[in-house]
Amino acid sequence: MKTISEHVLDIVQNSVRAKATLIEIIVNENKENNLYTLVVKDNGCGMPEEILRQATNPFFTSRKTRKVGLGLSLLKQNAEGANGSFTIDSVPGEGTLVKAVFQKSHLDRPPLGDIWNTWYYTLLSNPEIRLIYKHCTGAGSFEIDSKEIFDMLEGVSLSQKEVREAVIEMIINNLKELEVIN
Amino acid sequence: MTKIKTVADLKRIKDEVQSKIKLRENSDHPEQIVQVKVGMATCGIASGAKETMKYFVDELEQQAIDAVVTQTGCMGYCYAEPTVEVTLPGKDPVVFGYVNKEKAEEIIDVYIKRGELIDGVIPITFKTIDD
């Protein structure tokens, strides 16, 4: 995957399939310690020990349509390739937390990418899930919560063009302020 | 116009849109809506399905076609990603492979608007060596 946002789009699908009703995407940039952390946390069905152990195995998948499951393995590979680390914690019945840490300055750390599109289109396809995106840097933090957005919309469709453009612009403007993007 | 930064700014836009919508008759007939599902599993994302989905959302709206575009998981045709499943009202779903922007345009112009089948359909009777 060429960007972190593509990994997020991918991993969040796992949370959706685990029937999560709350998915949190948290990106934390730490300049002093040169760390870039991505966390995807859900309250889905979780995985028992035997499954969890196999989760990053590319040849292991819970899908029936094919025999490989690359999402987690590719993210793990990218994190470790950027001198980082990768962990998954899961409790059956409670949820799963995927954490990928990258060395912030590493050449092989993928750029963030268009996370605003990832958040928006994931929400559009799964409006019943509470989707939260939070980004923290040394300059501050920004959070967008789908519950707040839907409350504000008061029934106006999320797929309305003006709404779509406004939501995406809001995320981009805030990320610019945090110096995440130019 | 001030930049959109907070949820309050979004509300302003929403209020503007709401008055516009009241003038349009919102058709609430799910049977008459075109359903477009874009495969967005690892294979799809890696092949650029995100661009395909954005294109469908933008174009269908531009052409005022009543459609719902959603992401779906792996449909099993990883070799032909990006894949898109189109269900015209009253018809069976049809899966297209290798759907880049040009193909998406063709699907919209020929299949969705005129109902004519085009090349690139993946048949449902496709069997793998395991079947």
What is the count of DSSP helices of chain B, taking H or I runs of 4+ residues?
4
pLDDT averaged over residues of chain B? 83
Assign the CATH architecture of the largest domain in chain B: 3-Layer(aba) Sandwich
Give the proportion of residues in helices of chain A.
25-40%
Secondary-structure class of chain B: alpha+beta
How many domains of chain B? The number is 2
Main beta sheet of chain B, described?
5 strands, mixed
- Low-confidence segments of chain A: none
| Helix-strand pattern of chain B | HEHHEEEHE
Strand composition percent of chain B: 15-25%
**Radius of gyration of chain A over all CA atoms, rounded:** 16 Å
How much is the radius of gyration of chain B in Å? 17 Å
Mean pLDDT of chain A: 92
CATH top level label of the largest domain in chain B: Alpha Beta
Structural class of chain A: alpha+beta
How many E strands of chain A?
6
Could you walk me through the main structural features you see in this protein, from its secondary elements to its overall organization?
The complex is a heterodimer of chains A (182) and B (131). Chain A has helices spanning 4-17, 49-54, 71-81, 115-125, 146-153, 161-177, and strands at 22-30, 35-42, 85-91, 95-103, 130-137, 140-145. By secondary structure, chain A is of the alpha+beta class. The mean pLDDT of chain A is 92. Chain B has 131 residues and is an alpha+beta fold. Chain B is built from 4 helices and 5 strands; from the N terminus they run αβααβββαβ. In chain B, a hairpin with a 6-residue loop joins strand 3 (84-87) and strand 4 (94-96). The N and C termini of chain B lie far apart (60 Å). Chain A binds chain B through residues 1, 6, 9-10, 13, 17, 63, 65-66, 69-71, 74, 114, 117-118, 121-122, 124-125, 148-149, 152-154, 156, 159-164, 166-167, 169-170, 173-174, 177, and chain B through 3-7, 9-11, 13-14, 16-18, 20-21, 40-43, 45-46, 50, 53-54, 57, 61, 68-76, 78.
